[in-house]
TrEMBL record:
InterPro entries per UniProt: Thioredoxin-like_sf (IPR036249), Thioredoxin_domain (IPR013766), TPR-like_helical_dom_sf (IPR011990)
Pfam family, one: TPR_20
Domain of life: Bacteria
GO biological process terms, semicolon-separated: cell redox homeostasis; response to stress
Residue stretches making up the Thioredoxin domain: 37-155
Segment forming the signal sequence: none
Organism of provenance: Streptomyces hoynatensis
Record's protein name: Tetratricopeptide repeat protein
């Protein structure tokens, strides 16, 4: 496949590009903030070649593009021209030492990004400046042409947006890529909640996780921890034989069915727990139905949304509800 759109001519004159003055201001603010932070020069060890997925796109590409041009390489393992182009881009990213960052996106694993960029074929190379995307070229290309496009991109980034990147030691950048992304900062309140759960202080753990969620309602880790702590608290000290006998003798007793579902889940009988609660939702109404539904959703949190058993049970719940 022959490369197309190899020229940067007019590429920055897109209606979607923000005003140059605003972009320059953001770039200057980002540099000033980085310099003011303790150890601000540590960013120089950031990797020059990064693997990006949909979850990390905003932070790794959009936010970073206010400080340095980000070049995106859309590729796939089965794409032979990609295997010619990608090494060139990676080598140049190291050589240019911080004048641009190369973000590699596997199209098979990130179909949403592939579609959002309107990619027609791979390899395809885009750039992001000040949060705005522009196409560079499609198809494999010889190194001299790739250099020419990169030089034009870097010049346009500085002239139009004030984005100049940051000098990076290629050896340190390579080591940073090998080491992987830095660990996210630890939330002391969340760490305390985990410690309480590990110590068996279930009441303290529940309170601690609720405190975290009062500040960060969307914290997935805290939601999971809270669901686990509540589950363990409910089954603590329960006599399994008595609980199961009560549920068998009183099939209409919703609380008895909830108690058995908890025991099933703790014992690893996930499908049994989910099936019992779906059946309880189906044959009840009003407050009883809502109690069973909410307990089922809580157990979904414990198992994890990615588990296929959760997906199957969600579909079953939808069928009985609607």
């Amino acid at each position: 496949m022959q490369p197309r759109n190899m020229s940067m001519s007019g590429a920055v004159d897109l209606s979607a590009v923000k005003a140059a003055a605003e972009a320059k201001q953001k770039a200057e603010q980002a540099r000033a903030q980085r310099a003011a932070q303790p150890g601000g020069e540590a960013a120089a060890a950031a990797p020059l070649v990064i693997d990006v997925d949909e979850a990390g796109f905003e932070q790794q590409v959009l936010q970073r593009s206010t400080e340095v041009p980000v070049v995106i390489d859309f590729w796939a393992d089965w794409c032979q021209p990609c295997k010619q182009l990608s090494p060139i881009l990676e080598r140049l990213a190291e050589e240019y030492a911080g004048k641009f960052v190369l973000a590699k996106i596997d199209v098979d694993a990130n179909q949403m990004l592939f579609q959002q960029f309107g990619v027609q074929g791979i390899p395809a190379v885009f750039a992001v400046l000040a949060g705005q995307a522009l196409p560079l070229f499609q198809g494999a290309a010889p190194e001299p042409q790739v250099r020419q496009v990169l030089d034009q991109l870097i010049a346009a980034a500085e002239q139009r947006f004030g984005i100049v990147g940051q000098p990076v030691d290629p050896a340190a950048a390579a080591a940073a890529r090998e080491a992987g992304p830095p660990a996210p900062p630890v939330n002391p309140a969340l760490a305390a909640a985990h410690a309480a759960l590990d110590a068996g202080d279930l009441g303290g753990a529940i309170q601690a996780y609720e405190n975290v969620l009062s500040e960060e309602p969307g914290d997935v880790e805290a939601k999971l921890g809270l669901a686990q702590a509540k589950l363990l608290s409910r089954v603590q000290g329960a006599d399994a034989e008595s609980v199961r006998k009560a549920a068998a003798e009183r099939p209409g007793d919703v609380q008895a069915q909830l108690a058995v579902a908890d025991l099933d889940l703790v014992g690893g009988h996930v499908e049994d727990a989910f099936g019992r609660l779906v059946a309880t939702v189906q044959r009840t109404a009003g407050e009883d139905r809502e109690a069973a539904r909410l307990r089922l959703l809580e157990l979904f949190e414990v198992v994890g949304a990615e588990d296929p058993r959760v997906s199957s049970a969600r579909s079953a719940l939808a069928r009985v509800l609607f």
